[in-house]
Amino acid sequence: EEDFQPYEDEIQALKEEIRLLTEKYEDIQQESTFYSEEDILKAIKSFQRETQEETKGEASLSELKAQLESLETDLSFLMKFTGFHFTNHSKKTLEKTRNRTVQKHRLSGKCHSLSFQLEFQLLEMQDNEKVSAVVSDLSIIMESREDSNVSKFVSSIEERGDLLTFFRSLSTYAEWYEHRRHTFLHFK
């Protein structure tokens, strides 16, 4: 019997090792069944979605670049067509509620060779689907304001807060101002 003792010990050690390995195997099986086939498919679909979104992100970035180039082209055309070139614009929000926003704007630029600066408050109100905007506290600085007609015109625009009329009139006036300037240079 003493001759077989080492074998008995070896057999016991092997049985213990088999028991531990069996437990480990069962644990692994339980973990893998914990992630059902449905869970694995969901994980794969989620990964595919993320990959598609990344690809879409790249596509939308190229679309945004194309839109930006298109807007720059439109802006360049408008600048040539109207003669306006805006050099600076800043805005500061003075008041913001759910359906009312008040902003202070400062704008400077040139129309042909005439430079101008504007400062005004813009009140935007939203009523259901309708949005209305009101200009107030309009102040205009123009280099040719020493001309009494221009001065009167600018004063009336400031009183009415009529920016659209100002831009339309300035575009025409600046164009003729350029023509007059070139004509006088020609005669000099």
From TrEMBL:
Keywords: Coiled coil. InterPro entries: CENP-P. It comes from Copsychus sechellarum. The gene is Cenpp. The keyword RNA-binding does not apply. This is CENPP protein. GO terms for cellular component: chromosome, centromeric region; nucleus. Residues 4-81 form a coiled coil. One of its GO terms (biological process) is CENP-A containing chromatin assembly.
